[in-house]
Structures are given as structure tokens and as C-alpha cells.
Amino acid sequence: MGGTRDEEFQHGNKLTATYQFSYEEEVDDDGKPRRTGTVWTASAHIITAIIGSGVLSLAWATAQLGWIGGISTLLIFSGIMLYTSNLLADCYRSPDRVTGKRNYTYMEEVQANLGRLSCIACGVVQYANLSGFVVGYTITAPISMVAVHKSNCFHRKGHASSCKFSSNPYMIGFGICEIFLSQIPNFHKLTWLSTVAAIMSFAYSLIGIGLALDRIISGKGGKTSLTGVEIGIGISAAEKTWRMLRAIGDIAFAYGFSQVLVEIQDTLRSPPAENKVMKKANGVSLLTTTVFYMMCGCLGYAAFGNDAPGNMLTGFGFYEPFWLVDLANIFIVIHLVGAYQVLAQPVFRKIESLTIDKWPNSKFVKAEYPIRIGSKTVVSLNPLRLTGRTIFVVLVTLVAMAMPFFNDVIALLGALGFWPLAVYFPVQMHIAQNKIKRGSSKWLKLQLLNFLCLLVSLAAAAASIQGIGEALRSSKLFEFKE
Q1: Roughly how many angstroms between the first and final C-alpha of the chain, as a whole number?
Q2: pLDDT tens per residue across span 399-438
Q3: Helix axes 274-304, 191-217, angle to 10 degrees
Q4: Span 28-342+387-474: which CATH code?
Q5: Are 204 and 328 contacting, i.e. CB atoms less than 8 angstroms apart?
Q6: Predicted structure pTM score
Q7: For residue range 38-54, what is the model confidence (pLDDT) as tens digits?
């Protein structure tokens, strides 16, 4: 009997050890499910967040700034974003970059390094900016849907036909699609959607580049200059200045992805250390993005010259090859469907975490209702997630329908979010984390970068507000026809 008990005791210890080993394999050091992200999945998330509707306005932006200003601005913003994104990556764990406590959100990073007041200011800017971006995507995706409809109309009825359509039905359809996708619970489940969206961004960028090259080679390229659109008939010196500043805002928008970097970094497995992997992902994604941006901006400008349109693809007309332009616009829509979710997930997470903190024992907050096909759970519905995210998508769609203009909204979003989120907070956290002395050479260089980027943001914001004012005088709310 004693031998049998010993055997049972040893067997129980083995089971316990096996269970503990299995448990340890399934969770990370913070007790959360083990992260599985790599440099490639992080790069896919970043590329999905960066290459969005902003790429379509780069030909117009280059036309306002000219060859010198356009190329220089693209390269300068790329360099600034790479530097400050790497500073942000070092703040994921604190106080030690490798073994310290994880900061799951941008706000947590700011609070850990700069304190409560800075955390609140960061949250206001970050979530307002993210919400603004998804409004921008809700405006942009229907423009591409209308372009497909318009292209098919011209092809069917002839080039002289009056083919004008409201984008409102398409905005509603886009919103309905996002209501369903918003039930994806978190960033960790978004990898497949980000991968598809990243592939789509490359696809439509390549089509735009190919069409621009064809136009240039065939001798139909527009008039270009070193300084861009020239002052003269139809454009005054003041208008030229406003346009240049709005173009800088457009480029800032095109590089706007700092708002989601911390959430992306929180998907990475370790070892190796998350900050090292994230820096590699930053490098890969920004190099890839800058190459595409240079090609889209420069070739688009060469193709259309100083008359480059706000949306590059619409400038190729709606005629032949109509099917290729249609395909590019379809790719844009698919990409923006995924990009919307990448940018909306931090907003969803914040709303839900605040609600859970307020009512931790509520069934409405905690209950999960799995929907199964056979023995496999397809999706798990949560009442808070279902209602809260649906209300958010509906509100975003209504705001987008009320704003029938594109470039000026993009410029304002870029201007408002670029300085605080991409420059100020990363620089200040780096100073605090590394205890850089006030007045030292490095401190002065970092503060100079801060100040110059603040001036750029303020100038671009002023120009975009002026542009929105003009657009409001010539447009009606809830009425947008292309």
C-alpha cells in the first residue's frame, strides 16, 4: 500500500510539473497569453498603418513643393520618424529596457517616464488623432468606390456622359463592413488582416507607379519645375504659400503611425528584446515606405506636372485601361478596410479598459458568447464590444459623411498629430529615461528638433484650417458627388 501511495504521489508531482510547464509555455512574464509577433508581423502592421490614403496625395504635395522641396521633405520626415520611433521603442519596458515592467499603451509609456499630467495630454491627442484618422479613411475609401462606379459608367455610356455619384451610400457600406470587423478582439488577432492590407498597399502603389511611367514614356507628362506650382494666373503668392504648408501637412499625415507603435510592439515575442526587434521593424517598414512614397510622389508629379490631382489615381482618367484603374481602387478599399482596424484598435482598447475598471463584475462587460460552427469557435461576442464598437463606427461614419473634402482634412490630421506624438513625447521620454542634463549639447539638439517640428506642425495646421474654410464655402455638408 505504501509503495502504491508513493507511486501515486510521484505521478501527481509529474502531472503538476507537466501542467506548470504547459502553463509557462502558454503565458509571458506578465501572465498574459504568450506573444507570437516577429519583425515581419510588426512590419506588416506598421506598413498597413503608414501606407494609407496619404500616398494618393503625394503627387499633389510634390507639385506644390517642387522637385527640391518635395524630395527633401519626404526624406526629412522619413529620417525624423525613424529616429523618434526608435526612441519610442526603448520606452516599452521601464525602468530597464530589457527586463523592466511592460507598458502596454502609449499613455502608459508617457506616465512611466513623464508623469500623470503628460499622460493625460498624450491620451487626449492620441485618441483624438486616431479617431480623426479613421474618419479620414472613411472619407477616402468611398472616393475609390465611386471612382470604380464612375469608370464603369464612362466605359459603358461613353466619355461624354455625365457620370456623377454620391459617396454617401458607399460610406454607409464601408461603415457596415467595419462594424463586423471591429469584433476582432485585439491586435493579436489582426495579423492576417494587416498582412492582406499591406499586400494591397503595395499592389495599388505599383499600379499607380506603372500608370505614371506609361504616361511619362508616352510623352504625356506634365510641366514640372524645381519650385513646383508657379505664381501667376489663378494662383497668388499667398495661395502658393498656403498650398505649400498644406502639402507639408499631407506628407506628415503620410508618415503618421506613432499612435499605434506601442500596441504593435506589445505583440512581439521575446527573446530577443522587444526594443531591438521593433527597431528592425521600424527600419524595414520606413525604408519600404519611403521608397514607395518617393516613387509615387516623384513619378506622379512627372506624369501630371503642376496640375497633379489630390488623388493620384483619379488623374489617370476613367477611360482606358479602365479595368486597371478599377483594380487599383479596389485594392485601396481593401487596404483601408484593414488600416481602419489597425488604427481603431487602440481606441477600442482604451474605451473598454475604462469601462471594465468602472464595472468589473458586470455581465455586460465580461460575458462572452461564442458562436460555433461544429466544434470550432468562429467568433466570441461580448455585449460591451458589440455595442461600444458599433456606436464608435456609426459616429465616425456620420462625421465622414458631413465632411465632403479630402486633402485639407488629411493635412490637418497630419499637422495635429505629428509633433506631439511623433516628436515631443518620444524626445521628452528619451531625455527623462537617459537622464540627459538640461543645457547639455545633446539636450539642446533634441530640443531644437522639438522646436522645429512644432513650427512645422503649427504652420501646416494653420494652412489646412484655411483650406477647410475655403472648402466649406464651396461645399455642402452631407453632400459629396464625384
Answers
A1: 87
A2: 888 765 655 666 676 677 788 888 999 999 999 888 888 8
A3: 30
A4: 1.20.1740.10
A5: yes
A6: 0.76
A7: 888 888 888 877 776 56
